[in-house]
Amino acid sequence: LPTPPARLPYVPHVPPMALLGKVTATTFALEGPRCVFDGHADASDTVWLAVAFANASATFRNPRSRADVPPYKQLPTARSYMTLETAAAAYLCSAPSPPVLRVGGDTACRDQDRQDPCNGPLPSPGPYRVKFLLMGCRGPKAETRWSEPILLRRAVSPCTIDPAPTRRGSDVVVIASILASLGAVLASAVLGALGAKVWGSLCHQDLGTDTFIRRSYRTHHIPPALPQPLPPGCRCSLPRLCRSSPQPPAPC
């Protein structure tokens, strides 16, 4: 009997960092198993990714050789497949950087009728579970745990889009009406106060102008002072005035 593969504690997962298109309707990104198979892999070994529907991962059986690897085209019936065959040296700790894998990124798999493993687009949102499997010339040597369920994005059907705006609740409408009324009252009060202030300043300016005009007008109509009678014993140096006086002129 073949030796069962070593079970490693590593759990595959989607990268936590921000990544464009990390999860789409047909693909998802996955962190590579860097430093996971150190001490188990030889130079000729390869690392595979097993992909299965979440409810079919428990019934998945590791292939005994490369010839028994389930292909991508059997996913609808077998509920699982294996893909992304990579040399084990790419995941060693001495590798330059941890690679980020794209599951379902090969769109040409749909058009090619081939038996070799393919990384074709995923046919449904899933959810899916994945695990890494180290394969040698004699079969599986080590494997990771299954990942948590990975759910893809769902495409929104145009028939489900409501062209009408969303109806608001009656409470929201009442609150909005009250706020609008309070705003109108406040605006009216502010405008009224400003109008009264401007009107008062204009009235004060008009009152000052009228007073000045009236005072100026009265200064031009002050009657001239009447001549005072000459005292007795004065010398009549103004004969005309002496003749016009109603009293007898004083002796000159």
UniProtKB/TrEMBL annotation:
InterPro entries reported in the protein's UniProt record: Uroplakin-3
GO cellular component, as recorded: membrane
Keyword Membrane: yes
Positions of transmembrane segments: 172-194
Keyword Nucleotide-binding belongs to the record: no
Keywords: Membrane, Transmembrane, Transmembrane helix
PANTHER family, alphabetized: UROPLAKIN III, UROPLAKIN-3B
The protein's name in its UniProt record: UPK3B protein
The organism of origin for this protein: Lanius ludovicianus
